[in-house]
Amino acid sequence: MAKLAKVKTTETAASVDDFIATVADEQKQADSKALIQLMQKASKEQPKMWGASLIGFGNHIYESPTSGRRVEWFKVGFSPRKAAISLYVMGMDGDKRDELLAKLGKYKTEGGCVYVKKLADIDMKVLEEMVKETLKGK
User: Which of 11, 38, 74, 109 is the most buried (most CB within 10 A)?
Assistant: First the structure.
């Protein structure tokens, strides 16, 4: 069993509500609150800050399929960044991920993240299913 790698982004004791209040865009604040509600309900976990700008739910050991590197990370999460909201919904089966992304709406993706400008651009029922699928394997 490989030792856990040290990463810069770890769970902190910072306030999620205080962080959301610093998000300049009111729509992103509202979307963040909706995402917290959705992810908290699906994961049955409290939101926690990870680093300065990520909100995560639950903890698990993530192992990179390419490098084998193991790190402690959250199960699902998001970050309300200036350009887009980054949704961390990794670990879905490839076919299931493709099927859900095809129905999601307007988004971009790279690696394990899905990027949306605002929640109004996507189907929230599909996102909820993506969150549940992500949580299944963790």
Answer: 74
